[in-house]
Design goal:
Blueprint lengths: L8 E4 L23 H10 L6 E7 L4 E7 L2
Parallel strand pairs: 1-2
Antiparallel strand pairs: 2-3
Length: 71
Amino acid sequence: MLSQGQPPVVKLFIGHDSYGDPCEAEIQRHLWVDLLPIKTAFLKAHPGRDSGLVSIDLENREVSIQYTFGP
């Protein structure tokens, strides 16, 4: 799940199944993603730590987001 680099990197792909809709309208929605599994994987890989930084690469958007968490 997480790379061994510093900061560790996780690749995330967010997709949408349009069910045949050509998706020509510009509809904006907020999307919520639960990051707890990423935090849990980081803490498991780094025993004794209670905070960290993980880079999340959005594969289909060529964007990287820095996810920082702490106590």
